[in-house]
């Protein structure tokens, strides 16, 4: 038996600081058309897909950053994405900065089905970076200043023939992210990322090593939870800052089956058989048979690592 979901990962090339949302949405719509022309069921866009990665810019008065946020979804400028998806009969997932009616700021991703109903919303839990300006950094990473940690946990949704989940960028580095969804039977995890090619605090670290980190955590998450993972970059040089590419689709064995080749707008497509999750979910990663929760208490009760006394 096969349960095929044809997935398109729509990598974004760089978005410059002064690039208007309308122009960006036009680029995303074009990639949505490409995905649909290859008969994809769903197209996955990146984290904060509508703007440049604005958390690199420090602003004393946080409210001055509200212009980077969406107050409505769909809103005037994003409506073409929903209209095009409806016309083409394709689902999509997209990340954006969300400003709620009661004034909360989240790094958010939504899942939209083929009838263009928003069936799922996820708000980034693991916010990397820092709150205050740090002069020792070549560039700032102020997600902790501009966003609150997500308040929705890691839900999954039964839609488009499978059990779908989402996470965002830094979340992929945490096994807890995938395991919480794995415990809900997730079959496909969709995520976007904006990841600097180099680490300004660790000058010797190579782009190759950082790409290895990018892929290994998604591959491990896929294998250890017997699910598909789609990771979608915003790549290239944004206002002098390099973001890594490497968008990929990973199968439940943890193998990369499709990989972007460029640092620009690029669509990669793969027919994902959700039934390929079944074997590992029933054997090696049959959680009910093998997990030993009596030994996992620290995971949910302690944040810092506390080594034994010397
Ligand atoms: N967007 C995002 O979460 N980026 C981080 C960069 C970490 S460096 C502070 C990531 O984990 O890829």
Helix-strand layout with pairing:
Elements: E1 4-11, H1 21-37, E2 42-44, H2 79-88, E3 91-99, E4 105-112, E5 118-123, H3 143-146, E6 156-159, E7 162-168, H4 175-182, E8 188-193, H5 207-225, E9 228-233, E10 236-238, E11 241-243, E12 248-250, E13 256-259, E14 266-273, H6 278-282, H7 287-290, H8 297-301
Helix pairs in contact: 1-2, 4-5
Bound molecules: 4-methylsulfanyl-2-ureido-butyric acid (CDT).
Short précis:
The chain is α/β, with parallel strands linked by helices and 310 residues long.
Walk me through this protein's architecture:
The chain is an alpha/beta fold. The chain has a single domain, classed as Nitrilase/N-carbamoyl-D-aminoacid amidohydrolase (4-Layer Sandwich). The chain is built from eight helices and 14 strands. The site of 4-methylsulfanyl-2-ureido-butyric acid has 10 residues, from loops.
What integer value in Å does the Rg equal? 19 Å
- The third-level CATH topology is Nitrilase/N-carbamoyl-D-aminoacid amidohydrolase
Number of separate domains? 1
Most strands sheet: 6 strands, mixed
User: What is the end-to-end distance?
Assistant: 56 Å
Fourth-tier CATH superfamily name: Carbon-nitrogen hydrolase
- On the 0 to 100 scale, the average pLDDT is 97
- The number of helical elements comes to 8
Question: Pairing-aware structural class of the strands and helices?
Answer: alpha/beta
Please estimate the helix content.
Answer: 10-25%
Oligomeric description of these chains? single chain
What characteristic shape results from the CA principal axes? globular
- What hetero molecules are bound to the protein chains? 4-methylsulfanyl-2-ureido-butyric acid
